[in-house]
Design a protein that fits this description.
By secondary structure, the chain is of the alpha/beta class. The protein has helices spanning about 10-25, 35-40, 50-55, 70-75, 120-135, 150-160, 175-185, 235-245, 265-275, and strands at about 80, 90, 95-100, 100-105, 140-145, 165-170, 190-195, 205-210, 245-260, 265, 280-290, 305-315. It has 2 domains: about 10-105, no CATH class; about 120-315, Rossmann fold (3-Layer(aba) Sandwich). Helix 1 crosses helix 7 (about 175-185) and helix 5 (about 120-135) runs parallel beside helix 6. One of its GO terms (biological process) is methylation.
């Protein structure tokens, strides 16, 4: 197991920047990309006038809109880039509020191959984890967040279970950087960011495994968005397969994902049912939101889909 090194100078500056923004009382709830684009297209919204415009809405900004010292921290953290031909800058990161914490993630639009996504799915994912922890009677000693992105799942677990060892796993180094800084920002000492493809980089059983994988088909195959399979369910099925063999007695998997419903049929539920039937495991499956990313239905891979639903699969192994 290769643990990531402590925060280097650039990451330490990014942490100091996030702490300074937090100290201003900053708060921002990140909407869907479609809503984000609509709001930014409104007259007068092209240039940021405050920190929410800079770090929430990802608008261009003049350096003087920043409180003293913050712009220099942005420069040291290497997250301020100049706009071509103008005396304006743009942040490479956003800051979003969730569960009483702030989380760094990629700026809008998330078009880069290694972008780190955060949005309404993240809030629903966190709510699913919190509901499971509230219902759980056994302690969580060891937990994993597969495909952690910016780390919200693992950090929610680590804050609720401060004695637990929590590993935040991803193949995206940009995500691991932000997860590492976000854990420090939240004071989640038990959460560690590790490079791992699913669970291959870590050994042993887990009391809790959580995951919010990408579930769309993306022609560019960007890691934060592309789920693979026939209609985006491939990675979710792979995570289910990986997790089933690694649950400790009494251990639980909380898998939040999205599925394309085609003529009333849910391909992920069918795949999960095949794997779980007769396995002696307790499981629940529910739609968290019946209609997400509706813009994806306008053509291409989803031209036969009725809708894309957000779902939560919870699987628990019997205790010893």
């Amino acid at each position: 197991m290769a643990f990531l090194s402590p925060l280097g100078p650039s990451d330490a500056s990014l942490l100091a920047l996030a702490e300074a923004v937090r100290d201003t009382g900053y708060n921002f709830v990140t909407p869907t990309p479609a809503t984000h684009a609509r709001v930014n297209r409104r007259p007068g919204n092209a240039v940021a006038e405050d920190l929410r415009g800079v770090f929430g809405w990802s608008r261009s900004f003049p350096a003087e809109v920043m409180p003293p010292g913050l712009f220099e921290l942005m420069r040291r953290a290497e997250v301020a880039v100049p706009e071509a031909g103008e005396a304006l800058w743009r942040s490479l990161v956003r800051l979003s509020s969730l569960a009483g914490e702030l989380f760094l993630h990629s700026a809008f639009p998330t078009s880069a191959a290694d972008a780190v996504f955060f949005g309404p799915d993240t809030y629903r994912f966190a709510a699913a984890i919190q509901a499971e922890l509230a219902a759980r009677s056994a302690p969580v000693r060891r937990a994993a967040d597969i495909g952690c992105g910016a780390g919200p799942g693992g950090i929610v677990v680590a804050k609720a279970c401060p004695a637990a060892e929590v590993v935040m796993l991803d193949i995206n180094d940009a995500a691991l950087r932000l997860a590492r800084v976000n854990a420090a920002l939240a004071g989640a000492a038990g959460a560690t960011a590790l490079h791992s493809d699913l669970l291959t980089g870590v050994g042993g059983p887990f009391d809790l495994i959580v995951s919010n994988p990408p579930y769309l088909l993306d022609h560019a195959r960007r890691a934060y968005r592309h789920g693979g399979g026939a209609l985006g369910e491939g990675l979710s099925v792979a995570i289910l397969d990986a997790a089933l063999g690694r649950l400790a007695p009494g251990g639980t998997l909380v898998l939040y994902t999205g599925v394309a419903i085609v003529e009333g049929q849910d391909a992920f539920l069918e795949a999960a049912t095949q794997r779980l039937a007769g396995a002696g495991l307790a499981w629940r499956y529910r739609e968290s939101d019946p209609d997400v990313f509706g813009e994806e239905l306008e053509g291409g891979a989803y031209d036969r889909a009725d809708r894309i639903a957000a779902v939560v699969l919870t699987v628990t192994k019997p205790g010893s």
